[in-house]
């Protein structure tokens, strides 16, 4: 069942203090919030002062227990330290995992008082407290692995595309792989300079393959059909950057092999010379 919460936040346009209820957890069987998510209508609010519509700056967790798919959308993810990220998603994450444990008939142990030191006693009574009190070893023994390693994204469009893919019949792992590719495409586009872009490509080398090009081509075709020429051109530019990087890596590898071959050749020559000298001495 979907979970909602009341959020207070400043309008990003005029800074007016607003109060709006929004979704923080959506299960795949929740028809209406899932429809809103797919139609890009979820967690939107209009400021009564400036009439600006914006998305609530809150995390949104999507869970499909049949596909074992767990996605966490976190706005401004790159600006959060690991501790801040953990605090940001702590409440909805614990709530979702605890409910899924109950649905699967998994009994979580009672909370040990030592798990919440002085100053944090109030956390003991929050939904999800049992989950957060687990040690890593306990969590690994009791819970499915996918619940402990959700896929975290910072782009709402990636979340929306992934949910649609799951509903179209893709497996959880296939969806996750495509999400990584979509996130990679977004990171290449948003890289500040060529050096930053090269770092993105270097870290993502295992994904620079035909499957990634298929995703780019599919998205390009979709953008063409929707008349979004600017996005289509960006996707083609991404493809060119990947091809250029792969070409440069092949050249670098070829030069490295050439140097190794030359080194082996020179080493062999020196070894042969030394052997010949030794033979002459013996004669």
How would you characterize this protein structure?
By secondary structure, the chain is an alpha/beta fold. The protein has 2 domains: 3-169, no CATH class; 191-283. It contains 10 helices and 7 strands. The strands form 2 sheets. The chain has a 5-stranded mixed beta sheet with strand order 1-2-5-6-7, sandwiched between helices. The protein has a two-stranded antiparallel ribbon with strand order 3-4. A hairpin with a 6-residue loop joins strand 1 and strand 2 (17-27). Helix 6 (156-167) packs antiparallel against helix 7 (172-190) and helix 9 runs antiparallel to helix 10. The longest helix has 54 residues, at 229-282. It is globular, with a radius of gyration of 26 Å.
Which secondary structure elements does this structure contain, and how are they paired or packed?
Elements lengths: L2 E8 L6 E11 L3 H8 L5 E3 L6 E3 L4 E5 L4 E5 L8 H22 L25 H4 L3 H7 L2 H4 L2 E3 L2 H12 L4 H19 L3 H10 L6 H16 L3 H54 L1
Parallel strand pairs: 2-5, 6-7
Antiparallel strand pairs: 1-2, 3-4, 5-6
Helix pairs in contact: 6-7, 9-10
Mean pLDDT: 86
Q: Hey, roughly how much beta strand do the residues contain? A: 5-15%
Number of strands: 7
Regarding quaternary structure, what we see is single chain
Task: Describe the structure concisely for a colleague.
This protein has about 280 residues and is α/β, with parallel strands linked by helices. It has ten helices and seven strands. The chain has two domains: about 170 residues, no CATH class; about 90 residues.
């Amino acid at each position: 069942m979907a979970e909602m919460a009341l959020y207070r936040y400043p309008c990003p346009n005029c800074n007016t203090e607003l109060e709006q209820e929004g979704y923080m957890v959506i299960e795949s069987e929740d028809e209406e919030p899932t429809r809103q998510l797919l139609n890009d209508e979820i967690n939107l609010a209009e400021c009564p002062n400036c009439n600006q519509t914006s998305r609530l700056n809150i995390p949104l967790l999507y869970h499909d227990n049949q596909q074992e798919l767990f996605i966490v959308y976190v706005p401004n993810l790159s600006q959060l330290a690991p501790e801040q990220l953990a605090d940001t998603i702590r409440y909805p994450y614990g709530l979702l995992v605890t409910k899924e444990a109950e649905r699967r008939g998994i009994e979580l142990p009672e909370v040990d008082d030592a798990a919440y030191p002085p100053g944090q006693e109030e956390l003991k009574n929050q939904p999800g407290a049992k989950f957060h009190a687990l040690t890593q070893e306990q969590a690994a023994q009791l819970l499915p692995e996918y619940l402990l390693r959700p896929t975290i994204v910072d782009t709402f469009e990636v979340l929306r595309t992934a949910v649609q893919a799951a509903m179209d019949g893709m497996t959880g792992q296939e969806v996750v792989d495509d999400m990584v590719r979509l996130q990679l495409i977004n990171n290449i586009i948003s890289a500040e300079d060529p050096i930053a872009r090269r770092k993105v490509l270097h870290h993502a080398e295992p994904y620079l393959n035909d499957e990634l090009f298929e995703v780019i081509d599919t998205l390009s075709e979709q953008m063409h059909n929707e008349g979004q020429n600017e996005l289509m051109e960006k996707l083609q530019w991404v493809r060119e950057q990947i091809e250029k990087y792969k070409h440069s890596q092949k050249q670098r590898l070829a030069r490295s092999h050439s140097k190794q071959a030359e080194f082996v050749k020179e080493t062999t020559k020196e070894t042969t010379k030394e052997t010949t000298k030794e033979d002459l001495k013996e004669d």
